[in-house]
Amino acid sequence: MRYISTRGAAAPLEFEDVLLEGLARDGGLYVPESWPTISPDEIAAMADWPYEKVAQRIMQPFVPAELAEALPGIIEKAYGTFRSDAVTPMISLGGIQDGLHLMELFHGPTLAFKDVAMQVLGGLFEHVLAKRDERVTIIGATSGDTGSAAIEAVRGRERARIFILHPHGRTSDVQRKQMTTVDAPNVFNIALEGTFDDCQNLLKAMFNDETFRDRVSMSGVNSINWARLMPQIVYYFIAALKLHGPDAATKPTSFSVPTGNFGDIYAGYAAAKMGLPVERLVIASNQNDILTRVMNTGEHTLGPVAKTIAPSMDIQISSNFERLMFDMLGRDGGAVAQKMSQLKDDGTFTLPEASLDTVRGLFGAHRADEQETLDAMKRAHDVTGELLDPHTAIGVVAALADMQSHPSESSTPMVVLGTAHPAKFPAAVERATGQTPPLPEFLGDLYEREERYDVLPNDLAAVQAYVAERV
Ligand SMILES: Cc1ncc(COP(=O)(O)O)c(C=O)c1O
Ligand SMILES: N[C@@H](CCOP(=O)(O)O)C(=O)O
């Protein structure tokens, strides 16, 4: 399997180089040159397989043969850290709406869906770096959850050091403490004076500075790295198999995905491309609704980032949308590069109707404001007894809106991806329900642990100097 850049000007790479490179050298994102498919018979046969075996089958075509042999061990170890044998258990939200389900992706060590991929990624890095006898400097940007999941996956590993940029004062206290209380010599936390978009812009600028990138052997763990997305494809198959059994090969499933950087929902698109019958992929946005606007109007115009009760989705520049655009524009890297350069220069671009039509049947997009989010959290608690985190609640609002606007598809089950544990956002949960979600026991003393981080200005040179001094 080879990977090509969405901007068409970087050399195609094999999986292991994509893993270590992170972002393509032309500024684009790597995507598989073609999509491997899983046949209906194979999907049906997976009905009684454990999560780990399905994961192995889905990921195996994306990696070279030698790595495919190591995958079972890497996967086994990754999901051994989860608090649920099912890895991503599913519950019914039928009390709210017939056919509504919730897949809980937050049973990993840092209580968000990021662990599902990051635990595998840690093992992949270890395997490939040991084989090549190399070391890397991982630099990541986080709006709150990627950071702690990445740190947890990399802490104490000999061949990697990790620098995580988070937006100063814009994460929840639990999210910040999960990152900054980790005491490991290879972990560095930077609180950037800016938004998540500023963190991600600096990250991309560091990737685009070839001298710096090569000097520190830079790599990445954000979803701009294809290897981060690959393990996220698996749970779309798992959800369909849980709902339909062997009929998952023919009966469709819909998904509502709380969306920020467009990575998680792009993994759902990949599952559909691989042969999973997916009826609807619903983009669920908070007030930072650039994706809802672009899908509904074709206009992709940046605005200021609003601070919301779902801070992990306080994002305007949704990097992985570029991967979908690549397909929407006929896999024409030059056309994508032109749109991205327009975005950089003017803060806006427009997508032609014809390209929107290529994905409109599959994708829906809805936005939830703060009150709708709080109301959904309260309703879920009142009706089902479940405490939802605000991001997941936005998924519920969007799911219900999409089900209402597509009544002809009402017999298709709708799965909301539960992206974070409610205890990561206690203030919002208390405001909505009056309940305080307890942290799991192993994080019981989180508030007493000592924090370590440095506050830096939103300045490329300052961040590069900070990293260079510590490498
Ligand atoms: C809790 C939570 N929900 C949803 C999202 C959005 O996911 P994505 O960026 O893959 O769209 C994020 C962060 O990205 C998150 O941390
Ligand atoms: N919400 C994310 C933002 C970064 O997303 P990623 O999936 O590209 O790593 C976060 O929690 O950091």
From TrEMBL:
Main enzyme class: lyase
GO biological process: threonine biosynthetic process
Membrane spanning stretches: none
Record flagged with keyword DNA-binding: no
One GO MF term: threonine synthase activity
Catalytic activity annotation: O-phospho-L-homoserine + H2O = L-threonine + phosphate
Residue list for modification N6-(pyridoxal phosphate)lysine: K114
Stretches assigned to coiled coil: none
Co-factor(s): pyridoxal 5'-phosphate
Keywords: Amino-acid biosynthesis, Lyase, Pyridoxal phosphate, Threonine biosynthesis
NCBIfam families associated with the record: thrC
Similarity section: Belongs to the threonine synthase family.
Protein name according to UniProt: Threonine synthase
